[in-house]
Amino acid sequence: MQVSDIAVLHSDVLAELHRTSFSHPWDSRAFYDLLMTPGVFGCLVYDDEHEYNPAGLCLGRIAADEAELLTICVPPNYRGKGLSRILLQRLFDVAQDRGAATMYLEVSVENSPARCLYADLGFKIVGCRPGYYAETTEQGTRRIDAELMVKSFS
């Protein structure tokens, strides 16, 4: 897999990838605005068979010595191939290179695969954010709790 850093010019691609994984995806403008924010960084991973076809994205932010995972997504047809682990490792490397001692994230309590991956990568649960996520269903919008997790790089 080829991995590259994200640039503002990727905003449309990032929005399309995000749409494949979330019921409330970020649009191109949201990605553009984020990428113009100081401290925001990320990476894309590409499909081996189709050299320029993005197969996942990861976006983070750093302030002082703390980093935060803003979003990560791998479209359904690319899941189960270890791409999230590759993306996160790249994000960890960049965060540490920029002086981060810790990284935080929120994850839905209903997202067992992600929670297991994060735990396997050394994240620990440090709190809960009640009703943090919104999911649109036929019956309306329901709220889902998020676990707050942290990983120390030391």
- Which stretches of 5+ consecutive residues score pLDDT under 50? none
Main β-sheet, spatial strand arrangement: 1-2-3-4-5-7-6
What is the mean pLDDT?
A: 93
- Round the Cα radius of gyration to an integer and report it: 15 Å
What is the number of strand segments? 7
Relative strand content: 35-45%
State the secondary-structure class: alpha+beta
The biggest beta sheet is recorded as:
7 strands, mixed
Structure annotation, total helices = 4
3D shape: globular
In whole angstroms, the N-to-C terminal distance is: 28 Å
Description:
- It is a single chain.
- The chain has 154 residues and is an alpha+beta fold.
- The chain has helices spanning 11-19, 28-35, 83-97, 112-120, and strands at 2-5, 40-46, 54-63, 66-73, 102-108, 124-137, 140-152.
- Strands 1-2-3-4-5-7-6 form a seven-stranded mixed sheet, sandwiched between helices.
- Helix 1 (11-19) packs across helix 2.
- It is globular and about 40 Å long.
- It starts with a strand and ends with a strand.
